[in-house]
Specification:
Strand content of chain B: under 5%
Strand content of chain A: 25-35%
Largest sheet of chain B: 2 strands, antiparallel
Distance between the termini of chain B: 75 Å
CATH class of one domain in chain B: Mainly Alpha
Membrane topology (chain B): Multi-pass membrane protein
Strand order of the largest sheet of chain B: 1-4
CATH superfamily of the largest domain in chain A: Rieske [2Fe-2S] iron-sulphur domain
Oligomer: heterodimer
Low-confidence stretches of chain A: none
Helix content of chain B: 55-70%
InterPro entries (chain B): Cyt_b/b6_C (IPR005798), Cyt_b/b6_C_sf (IPR036150), Cyt_b/b6_N (IPR005797), Cytb/b6-like_sf (IPR027387), Di-haem_cyt_TM (IPR016174)
Structural class of chain A: alpha+beta
Number of helices of chain A: 2
Protein name (chain B): Menaquinol-cytochrome c reductase cytochrome b subunit
CATH superfamily of one domain in chain B: Cytochrome Bc1 Complex, Chain C
Order of helices and strands of chain B: HHHEHHHHHHHHHHEEEHHHHH
Keywords (chain B): Electron transport, Heme, Iron, Membrane, Metal-binding, Transmembrane, Transmembrane helix, Transport
Structural class of chain B: mainly alpha
GO molecular function (chain B): electron transfer activity; metal ion binding; oxidoreductase activity
Mean pLDDT of chain A: 89
Number of helices of chain B: 18
CATH class of the largest domain in chain A: Mainly Beta
Chain lengths: ~160, ~425
């Protein structure tokens, strides 16, 4: 082996700097721009309907009624003086479920939920969530879809 | 023979300074010019100057890849036309579809052509994949090109999916809802992926904008990039996969024997372990006119079929998107119905795990199946095991698609296609 060949395998100052400064900087630049591009795709402001909404006065709903709130895609249930609100969005793939005599049926992939939102058939992996119902200062029902509650939690008027 | 009027006009133009500057080679009269015609033309140069008679036989490949390419060209042409009217806004998209249907001259035919060419392209890309499998054409040295083709298959599905959302009809809205929710089942990144895909939590304007950008720019760009590599690699990998020559033909060469496993290259134009050695020159013919005219004929046939379908069958358009109620049953287009049937058992298994495993299996296949036997022949006996496994998967996929198409009624419950389901009447909502 000639001395020149032997030298090629040794780390030279130039080689070391190329590796540490050159390639590390290049990798960091690529990583940073990729991260920025991905972050760019995540919106910071959403122009979507609020998760909190008012649903009229308690007196608007008859005793024992199950009302489908269309725009908000949820069911408002009144029993006596108690109110509960259950999501109408199937936990499987997000279709709107239909209320039937035998429970709630999803038209897309056939999930079935009972009156408590528990899965009794089909591919849905989770029960339907229940939302917090409260009374606003002006005497209207307030529903907050960001606050989940157990199925047996009621608002008592 | 007296030259026709067309011929005289063409030759008159070719003889001018301008004509000669554009067309370096005229209509070929000799074999030299036939080769030059292929090499010197931008549109033709990516094809070989000569092709084997075997490659020209329709039964060798059935022309499935070529048909897919022609359909893609039709899709680009009609797609660009549609872009002149379509507006990707939730309040305008559906009206633009109605305009295309009823107001724009030839708008209906252009939209129909785009739709039918898209459906046919999904079908022919699938058939092309099957052809390559059943002829063992994915084996070395074509492993990489098989994977490029797999990428093109996935891009085709992505283009179809993003495409049928754009009309903003009921199918569009609920397909985007279901599709984005399937994405949310992906491990670790699922919910974030869904948020990024929709540009929010709900299916609305930002989702439509994103799918539009994907459909007209991102996915077509990637498709043409991969397509370029795909066609280029077909040449580089030695043209169509052909059966290995019998050993006694490759051996006898004057001036000593050549190592059998050496790779021969000719000016980097073609590579192969048996490049031209022992091949009979009479087995090859000039691409001009034998290949080119066949291709043109096929292109005409593809356009004719798409045009026929577009004139006599209207592309469906459902009612305007209703974010409150999905149609019942809400069915995907036929090529996703097998997947929808799987998803109706479990979103995680049917939407993520099973498709993920299938794609991975197809991707690593050429690296696992390393035998060189049975390449270039349909249903080769040596490939019984591989062909049987592939056929079984295919049968299951077709069965799932048929079940999803004909045996699922409202609420995805079982029904027999020749009976009106009682549930459809009573559960109308």
């Amino acid at each position: 082996m000639t001395p020149e060949e032997n030298n090629e395998h040794k780390t030279t100052r130039r080689g070391f700097l190329e590796l540490t400064l050159g390639w590390t900087t290049a990798a960091a630049a690529v990583a940073a721009s990729s991260a920025a591009a991905v972050r760019f795709l995540v919106p910071n402001v959403l122009y979507e309907p609020s998760a909190q909404f008012k649903a009229g006065k308690p007196g608007d709903y008859a005793d024992g009624s199950i009302t489908f709130l269309e725009a908000e895609r949820c069911f408002l249930l009144r029993k006596g003086n108690t109110f509960r609100c259950m999501s109408a969005v199937c936990t499987h793939l997000g279709c709107t479920i239909n209320e039937t005599k035998t429970g709630y049926h999803c038209p897309c992939h056939g999930s079935v939920f009972n009156e408590d939102g528990k899965v009794v058939g089909g591919p849905a992996p989770r029960p339907l969530p229940w939302f917090l119902v409260s009374l606003s200062p002006d005497g209207r029902l307030m529903i907050d879809k960001n606050q989940l509650v157990p199925a047996d939690k009621y608002l008592v008027i | 023979m007296k030259p026709s009027f067309l011929q005289r006009t063409w030759e008159g133009f070719r003889d001018t300074r301008v004509g000669r500057s554009i067309f370096r080679v005229g209509l070929p009269g000799s074999n030299l010019e036939r080769a030059q015609a292929m090499v010197s033309s931008f549109l033709l140069h990516f094809q070989p100057a000569k092709v084997s008679r075997r490659a020209l036989k329709p039964t060798t490949t059935l022309g499935l890849g070529l048909i897919s390419l022609f359909l893609l060209l039709i899709l680009v042409g009609t797609g660009v036309l549609l872009m002149f009217y379509y507006v990707p806004g939730t309040d305008q998209a559906y009206a633009a579809m109605k305009d295309l249907q009823y107001v724009v001259s030839a708008g209906r035919v252009v939209r129909n052509m785009h739709r039918w060419a898209a459906h046919l392209m999904v079908l022919f890309v699938m058939l092309h994949l099957c052809r390559v499998f059943y002829t063992g054409a994915y084996k070395a040295p074509r492993e990489f090109n098989w994977n490029v083709g797999l990428g093109l298959f996935l891009l085709t599905l992505g283009l179809s999916f993003t495409g049928y959302l754009l009309p903003w009809d009921q199918l569009a809205f609920w397909a985007i809802t279901v599709g984005a929710n399937i994405a949310s089942y992906a491990p670790l990144i699922g919910p974030k992926l869904k948020f990024m895909l929709l540009g929010g939590n709900v299916v609305g304007q930002s989702a439509l904008t994103r799918f539009y950008a994907l459909h007209v720019m991102v996915l077509p760009g990637l498709t043409f990039l991969l397509l370029g590599i795909h066609l280029w690699r077909v040449r580089k990998d030695g043209g169509l996969a052909a059966p290995e020559l019998p050993v006694d033909q490759t051996e006898p060469l004057e001036g000593g024997s050549l190592p059998v496993n050496k790779t021969y290259g000719l000016m980097e134009l073609a590579k192969g372990t048996s490049f031209q050695v022992g091949r009979d020159p009479d087995e090859e013919v000039f691409s001009w006119p034998h290949l080119i005219f066949r291709e043109m004929l096929l292109f005409l046939a593809v356009i004719a079929v798409v045009l026929f379908l577009a004139i006599f069958f209207n592309a469906p358009l459902e009612g305007i998107a209703n974010p409150i109620h999905p149609p019942n049953p809400a069915k995907a287009p036929w090529y996703f119905l097998g997947l929808q049937e799987l998803v109706s058992y479990s979103a995680l298994w049917g939407g993520v795990i099973v498709p993920g495993c299938l794609v991975t299996a197809l991707a690593v296949l050429p690296y696992l199946d390393r035998s060189r036997k049975g390449v270039g022949r349909w249903f080769a006996r040596e490939r019984r095991v591989a062909n049987t496994i592939f056929s079984l998967c295919l049968v299951v996929a077709i069965a799932l698609t048929i079940i999803g198409s004909f045996f699922r009624g409202p609420s995805w419950s079982w029904q027999v296609p020749w009976k009106t389901p009682a549930a459809a009447v009573s559960e109308e909502h």
